[in-house]
Predict the 3D structure of the following.
Amino acid sequence: MGLSAPLGSARLFERREEKYEIDRASRRVLEAAIAERLPRFNYLQGQPYTFVTTAYFDTSDRDFYRWAEAHYEDNVKIRVKEYYYLAHPERGSPQDDKSFPDEKGRSSLEMGASTENGPSDMRGLEKGAAAGGNGTGKPAIGSAARLVGRGAHAAPWEPAQWEASPKDLALREEGGFLTFDHCFVELKQRANGSVVKKRFAFPKAQLSHLFGGQDVWQILLEITPPSELGPLRVAYGDLRRYLARYPVEVTSIVNYRRTVYQRDESDLRITFDDRIAIYTPIAGLYGERRALTAEALGRPLRTSERVILEIKCPGEYPDWLKGSLRPHSAERLSKFTTSVRLILSDTAWPAIDRNANPEGKAPLDAGGTSTRGGGVSGGGVAGSTVPGGNGTGPKS
């Protein structure tokens, strides 16, 4: 295929995760304290920010959403994430002058004014009339794309460590951004205070085959590093079982800019997400688009000037972090449920009917305890159970 996934693509994470919604002034104080203890992590040298687009998937009845709304600590999310970067960081983002403040000045959003898209903070997203969508403003993508390099040959974007950035996958410059030919498919499960995330890289051009129910194991074998086939079997096997039982479609899209502080991703990891924007779903995702950049997504349904601080850690927080967080309280925040709630705000959705299940289980189950499992043979899936769940939840 001429395509290979980045090292570290197929991964299993299990850790504690907390989220805080803060304003810009609080961010400055917290970030200063964090920067004294942890280095700012750049996936690509010269790139202080990573831009992220997340597409969430759900059934036509929005079963995953409705269960997650009622059970914050016991739910499952299916999502696709794309990471991209500024082609010319010194010039700022192409969207700076439209919806968000750049690094030199303050926009109406930063000063707290409402916009034509409605209220701009996360709490304000729950109020007011929606505006916008994806119907207009999409740039033509394809002929304008420029191949700028592959992996170590793509100076000055030499990789510092591969997660969102491929080892030998082409970077393309289009619309002022650097994009890649792959995305990340993720199954995220929250249970009993822990979060288990399973993911693998996948070619954007083939994504519709995966979510259309086709067996893509051979494609994964061709692009995944041999050392990561173990995690890949678990992630792909569990996702396949969910997709076989629950046909899903794109439900919502969220775009944001991320700043990362960490020494080792498997240890303490702290991120700041800002410039958060919610978009209505796009059928096919990459059918007409090479990349889901903010420019390609068009006009957002809502934007937020608030900052989401996320802390991911396998154990207890260090004392210095506990002290820095003392003035703040962790919140039950979810980009998934917030975005879907806004999109469905004009539609009445019935509550979950527990009487429909004699065992009192959810329509979706994260049940089971094993994060290992059987293998995948010839693309077939056998044996592994979905980790997470507290014994009362769904079975894949």
User: Anything to note?
Assistant: The two ends are 31 Å apart (CA to CA). The domain at 11-381 is CATH 3.20.100.30 (mRNA Triphosphatase Cet1; Chain A). The CA atoms of residues 374 and 383 lie 4 Å apart. The longest helix spans residues 229-245.
